[in-house]
From TrEMBL:
<dbReference type="InterPro" id="IPR012340">
    <property type="entry name" value="NA-bd_OB-fold"/>
</dbReference>
<keyword id="KW-0547">Nucleotide-binding</keyword>
<protein>
    <submittedName>
        <fullName>Carbohydrate ABC transporter ATP-binding protein (CUT1 family)</fullName>
    </submittedName>
</protein>
<dbReference type="InterPro" id="IPR003439">
    <property type="entry name" value="ABC_transporter-like_ATP-bd"/>
</dbReference>
<dbReference type="GO" id="GO:0005524">
    <property type="term" value="F:ATP binding"/>
</dbReference>
<comment type="similarity">
    <text>Belongs to the ABC transporter superfamily.</text>
</comment>
<keyword id="KW-0472">Membrane</keyword>
<dbReference type="InterPro" id="IPR003593">
    <property type="entry name" value="AAA+_ATPase"/>
</dbReference>
<feature type="domain" description="ABC transporter">
    <location>
        <begin position="4"/>
        <end position="241"/>
    </location>
</feature>
<dbReference type="GO" id="GO:0016887">
    <property type="term" value="F:ATP hydrolysis activity"/>
</dbReference>
<dbReference type="GO" id="GO:0015408">
    <property type="term" value="F:ABC-type ferric iron transporter activity"/>
</dbReference>
<dbReference type="InterPro" id="IPR040582">
    <property type="entry name" value="OB_MalK-like"/>
</dbReference>
<keyword id="KW-0813">Transport</keyword>
<dbReference type="GO" id="GO:0055052">
    <property type="term" value="C:ATP-binding cassette (ABC) transporter complex, substrate-binding subunit-containing"/>
</dbReference>
<dbReference type="InterPro" id="IPR008995">
    <property type="entry name" value="Mo/tungstate-bd_C_term_dom"/>
</dbReference>
<dbReference type="InterPro" id="IPR027417">
    <property type="entry name" value="P-loop_NTPase"/>
</dbReference>
<keyword id="KW-1003">Cell membrane</keyword>
Length: 358
């Protein structure tokens, strides 16, 4: 297991990058704690797989260093980094049995037959393939083969880190939940440093101790699921985390008052006079439909999803989402909204700004 330090790290796939826009991975300086589980979360093309491949040694960075503990591994081979990596699509040896596939990394490192047999049996049970251990991998379904890949990645207990690159893409939905739970259990049991790449917020939030949100080649926030939900440091984090995502509303802010199209909204903190692109960020959970007071909205439709209702409305020509309790009646005269002041975030040029006590 290892603490992973990313020191002044950046990467461009161009031979001679001339500007920041030429970098697929923009400069990073982060320390990831030994033994924690991290999820790299972001949309396609944001740089998360590039970062994972740099950590694994499949890609050498254009600048900066990677340290495992106190050892600089920037130019070390993948084998020398002592990591295990599971890819998006299954990589198995078709002519081998499931048992031999799982045992392969241990045999390569000279583990005893007794330990190999015990460990393979444990992993086979974890991935739900005890009954298939003596079957050849050829002819198995794609999701069964990916379970073998996951098992082979997890069979070693002595690795510095376990890296997962969207490993559940080909797994059926029920098995996804089960395998995520088992990965979490494995992490608690053995304390490996785990890094899990995904574009699925549910996978990230249920798997990781800390979620690393990436946008346009940059890490915009590292935090617990609660921190990402309550205090998104960037508007992308608010938009990407949550269903529906955070509402972002253009505003003018001066002191403890925000002005939205001429209507005043009181804020819980003092922000002074803000310049630039100023916006309020309010999650749908903290927006309430009211009568007579607040910002005017036009309700477009109401979606009843069982636990609550999602109200799709229009605020000064822009869509806004409101979560209403399942039992709440919604009448035509409920055409105003108010915000829970304690949960209004203020952003300048997409980055959250912290106010002072009012």
């Amino acid at each position: 297991m290892a603490k992973i330090t990313l020191d002044n790290l950046a990467h461009s796939y161009l031979a001679k990058p001339e500007s920041e826009d030429d970098f697929a991975l923009k400069e990073l300086n982060h320390v990831w704690t030994d033994g924690e589980a991290y999820a790299l979360l972001g949309s396609s093309g944001c740089g998360k797989s590039t970062l994972l491949n740099i950590i694994s040694g499949l890609v050498h960075p254009s600048q900066g260093r990677i340290l495992f503990g106190d050892v600089d591994v920037t130019h070390a081979s993948t084998a020398d980094r002592n990591i295990a990596q599971v890819f998006q699509f299954p990589v198995v040896y078709d002519t081998m049995t499931v048992r031999d596939n799982l045992a392969f990394p241990l045999k390569n490192r000279g583990a005893s037959p007794e330990y190999i047999a015990k460990r393979v049996q444990e992993i086979g049970a974890m991935i739900g393939m005890e009954a298939e251990l003596d079957n050849r991998a050829r002819g198995l379904t794609a999701d069964a083969k990916q379970k073998i890949s996951l098992g082979r990645g997890m069979v070693r207990e002595d690795v510095n880190a376990l890296l997962f690159d969207e490993p559940l893409t080909v797994i059926d939905p029920h098995m996804k939940w089960e395998l995520r739970t088992q990965l979490k259990s494995l992490h608690h049991e053995f304390g490996h440093t785990m890094i899990y790449v995904t574009h699925d917020q549910t996978e990230a939030l249920t798997f990781a101790d800390k979620v690393v949100v990436m946008y346009d080649g940059r890490v915009v926030q590292i935090g617990t699921p609660q921190e990402l939900f309550e205090r998104p440091e960037h508007t992308f984090v608010g938009y990407f985390i949550g269903s529906p995502g955070m509402n972002v509303i253009p505003a003018k802010v001066n002191g403890t008052t925000a002005e939205v199209h001429g209507t005043s909204v009181q804020l819980a903190k003092h922000f002074g006079k803000l310049d630039g692109k100023v916006e309020l960020g309010i999650r749908p959970e903290f927006v309430s439909l009211t009568k007579g007071e607040g910002l005017p909205v036009n309700i477009r439709r109401v979606e009843d999803v069982g636990r609550h209702k999602i109200v799709r409305a229009e605020l000064f020509g822009e869509e806004i989402n409101i979560l209403a309790p399942e039992g709440q009646g919604i009448s035509p005269d409920m055409n105003r909204i108010s915000f829970d002041q304690d949960h209004v975030n203020v952003y300048v040029n997409d980055w959250r700004t912290e106010g002072k006590a009012a």
